Amino acid sequence: MRNNLVILLFLVCVCTLHSEYVHISKQTGEIPENKIYCAMTDTKGFVWFGTDNGALRWNGSKWTYMNERNSSLYSHFKDPFYISSMACNDDGVRYFGATVMIEYGSAFGLMTYDGNRWKGYDKSTSGLRGVNISSITCDGGSVWAMSEEGLNKFDGNNWKHFAFNEIQKTSEIPQHFKESKDYIDGKVINCKATTSNGEVWFGTNSGLYRNGKPYAEISDNITAIAVDAENKIYVGTANNGIYVVTAPATPTKQGKQQLVDKPINKKSSKKK
């Protein structure tokens, strides 16, 4: 009888323990956009997200929306556009790539932000080729930006361009630009992030994965993942804002891991 009771209590715990997370969206009032295209953590620990017409920044206590009212990001990129890629180098310079919906002769495809000043690069004023930047990587002191015209390399002074047919056979190009799409359970991996303790997180069109196993059906389409210094997982979605996984989860009876919605910016109180 006692053993049966222990087993019952164990099953109850397994079925009811959940990970904690916060859901941030336009509806909750914290952010102005629900569509997230990309994410990163910079050298100061700030978490950034690319959206339609602007960049969101979380500094640990406050959201800031970089748009036409408080930065030159909007005027340089032109309208309409969305921030499709971002990266940060070791010196703390943030790089933002745009995808424009209409071809502009003067549109900047790449912008940098050093914390004080924005700077734009386009086809007419720099060696950048292309205005639609789909991927950015900072590697070996250079920034690499993939566009509709090929791969661009910028070392801070000089630009170098690689046509698509040169990428596979050029040794100096970072390996991930040469790799084809990765899959998990037959699903295309849209994004990937690794925590400081070695956990690997994947985002797909059908949900979130942790170390190769389904974690939770946060959204049908996960577009971006970033990890902060505390190993919090920031999950950007195509239409449902951002989820922040703040605590480890326990597998449910069905084998997946569930999340429990918890209001943001609210602390639990204890009766004295």
Q: What's the layout of helices and strands?
A:
Elements: H1 2-16, E1 19-24, E2 38-41, E3 47-51, E4 54-58, E5 63-66, H2 73-77, E6 81-88, E7 94-100, E8 110-113, E9 118-121, E10 135-139, E11 142-147, E12 150-154, E13 159-162, H3 164-167, E14 183-184, E15 187-194, E16 200-204, E17 207-210, E18 213-216, E19 222-227, E20 233-237, E21 242-245, E22 259-262
Parallel strand pairs: 1-22
Antiparallel strand pairs: 1-21, 2-3, 3-4, 4-5, 6-7, 7-8, 8-9, 10-11, 11-12, 12-13, 14-15, 15-16, 16-17, 17-18, 19-20, 20-21
Task: Explain the overall architecture.
The structure is a single chain. The chain has 3 helices and 22 strands. With 272 residues, it is mainly beta. The protein has one domain: 7 Propeller (Methylamine Dehydrogenase, Chain H), CATH 2.130.10.10. The protein has a 5-stranded mixed β-sheet with strand order 19-20-21-1-22, with no helix packed on it. The chain has a 5-stranded antiparallel β-sheet with strand order 14-15-16-17-18, with no helix packed on it. A 4-stranded antiparallel β-sheet has the order 2-3-4-5, with no helix packed on it.
Helix and strand run:
HEEEEEHEEEEEEEEHEEEEEEEEE
Biggest sheet, spatial arrangement of strands: 19-20-21-1-22
Instruction: Report how far the terminal alpha carbons are from each other.
Output: 38 Å
CATH topology: Methylamine Dehydrogenase, Chain H
Number of strands: 22
Note poorly predicted spans.
4-17, 250-256, 262-272
CATH domain class name: Mainly Beta
State which percent range the strand residues make up.
Answer: 35-45%
Computed over alpha carbons, the radius of gyration is: 21 Å
Estimate the mean pLDDT confidence. 80
The shape is globular
- What's the domain count? 1
CATH architecture: 7 Propeller
What level of helicity do the residues show?
A: under 10%
